[in-house]
Amino acid sequence: MILVVGHKGMLGQELMALFGSSARGVDVDDIDITDLQSVQRVLVTLKPRVVVNAAAYTDVDGCESNAELAMQVNGEGVAHLAMVTKEIGAKLVHVSTDYVFDGSKGSPYLEDDLLKPLNVYGESKLAGEMNTWFNPDHLIVRTQWLYGHAGKNFVETMLKLAAERKELSVVDDQIGSPTWTYDLARAIKALMDNNCTGTYHAANAGFVSWNGFAKEIFRLAGLDTVVKPMTTTELGRPATRPLYSTLDCSKLVQDTGFVPQPWQDALKRYLELRPTK
Question: What's this model's pTM, rounded to 2 decimal places?
């Protein structure tokens, strides 16, 4: 049995659908990953062969003012999962982020590039990565710029704003790969099916700025919303963001044969499948 921790979230729901009857899900009502006893109680009772951790405190700006909570969930929580999965002989699959990098490399990041987070969220996720090592049988999957049908995300925010305004300003100096949770779930399954361990990058192919991403959302949605450029500095968010944090996914392709589709194709399909509201 595969246990998905955080199964009600954007990625968790995709994983549950993909794994089907072989999966079971738990969320905050069932397990508190910041509490070792809670983790022991759930995992020892259910005895899964694999635990996929899709739970995280992902409010990047909120982490700046709630550093302790961020570290408890994203760092210590992973340590608890790693220790107990090792204890019961299960594999731990942990989802991480491009924010463990500082964005200064200038080319797509490889799995073993220098880790240098710029903000509390990145620091807490790096702590989580380090804590997976309590269980030698682990898989870390780094991804970025996630959107999906089951949660708040950039695509939905842009479409909502477009219904209210004819002109928007969107950051154009941050570059990354928008990634559909459906494709990330498929990448994770491919890695698991091939018994991969260690660290892998998984994101949709290609890269773009948030500004370019917004323009493509509106183009595909048939909207004539004007998207003006702005800088990260002008936006003035509490957390510092990496400016170029694209992930190199060639190791994923080489070891599994799974080839992520271009981000434009993924976005088109996402919008086609989007429930009408």
Answer: 0.95
